[in-house]
Design goal:
The protein is α+β, with helices and mostly antiparallel strands. Helix content is 32%, strand content 35%. Strands 2-3-4-7-6-5 form a 6-stranded antiparallel beta barrel.
Length: 209
């Protein structure tokens, strides 16, 4: 992933936490006629250190997992809060006019070897962990064990799991770091005043840098 130094994020814990929060990504693997891609929820496990693994599952009917050779490598991509940035927010617009539109965004790429599995016990453990992670904030969390066991067993037969052991983890936090403070302040104010939820999320990230 192209990422100029001023935008590059290399801190592993920061990247792992962002993946946990985003939770939903795109899994890309080599296919028979090019690349295959699936959009899936994934679970970030920090072990084994230092980069950890990504765990997920897909429909058994999905051809992506069927055509991979042993020891195949994969790429998981996660895109975070992002927004169009109008040059009208820059103080520089009034001073010189030498400004153009851009885009602020977060993106993370995880590269590594992927393994698929369909062992029922391992699948049950995986979907239980994934469910627990997303139900944790609810007052009365739903659990896999709340459903009839035979019903869950039947559904597990329709999926395959995967583990992507992360060999390389990279991220870019493109948040107007290349602009001077008056321009950054103008962008932050514009995102808050004119934007929706996505724009306000970008403004929050800018404020925390």
């Amino acid at each position: 992933m192209y990422s100029p130094p001023q935008f590059r994020e290399e801190r592993i814990p920061v990247l792992q936490q962002a993946i946990r929060e985003l939770a939903f990504g795109t899994l890309v693997t080599p296919g028979e006629f090019g690349f295959e891609a699936s959009h899936l929820p994934m679970l970030m496990d920090p072990e084994p250190a230092p980069r950890g693994v990504l765990l997920g599952h897909m429909a058994r009917a999905n051809p992506q997992w069927k055509t991979l050779p042993a020891c195949a490598r994969a790429l998981a991509m996660f895109v975070g809060p992002n927004s169009f940035i109008t040059p009208s927010w820059y103080a520089t617009k009034a001073e010189t006019g030498k400004v153009v539109p851009t885009w602020n965004y977060i993106a993370i790429h995880a590269h590594g070897e992927i393994e698929f599995f369909d062992d029922p016990g391992r699948l049950r453990e995986h979907v239980s962990r994934l469910t627990d992670a997303h139900e944790a904030s609810r007052a009365i969390p739903w659990a896999v064990t709340d459903a009839p066991a035979d019903y869950i067993d039947k559904l597990l037969g329709g999926i395959v799991g995967f583990k992507l052991t992360i060999a390389r983890l990279e991220g870019t936090w493109t948040m107007s770091q290349n602009r001077d403070e008056p321009d950054r302040a103008g962008v932050h104010a514009g995102l808050i005043q004119e934007g929706g939820a996505a724009q306000k999320a970008v403004a929050k990230i800018m404020a925390g840098q």
